[in-house]
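A further point concerns the way the authors explain their paired sequence and structure data. An entry of this sort, consisting of the sequence and the corresponding backbone structure tokens, reads as follows:
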Amino acid sequence: MPVLPDPKHEAFAQCLAKGMTSDKAYQEAGYKPNRGNATRLKANENVQARVKELLEVTASKALDDSVFDAKTMFRDLLGDIEDAKKAGDFKAAADLRKFFIRCFGYEDSPTLTQEHVKGTKIPDTKPREGEEAPERDTSQVMQFADALKKFKRRA
């Protein structure tokens, strides 16, 4: 719905959308105080539609302002870390890496798992009832240990 043709009606609708009472909005729009007329104008279909539109626009703007793309932000942060390394500013790179780790909640967790480092779980090696225990694949454990050492050196 476009702006209401009557400027006082438009001002009234905008005041209502801001959360004012109908009496206060009626006076702010330039009318003499009259509770009955304020209630009647508030019930006007065009005014109600305009208030609804104004509230939707406000809600949409608030949502757009509050939403951010975490994936893009973290990608940019990783780029900043690489730029700092290339520039030789290793302290800044280390600080950014610590911040990155803190963002994922790993700062207070001293134990990193295979799932954290490689994104895969170590398969369960417990035999089911009636089955023999499978042979352990130590290569996966060794890869995890190497990744953990590299991670500790970086942090």
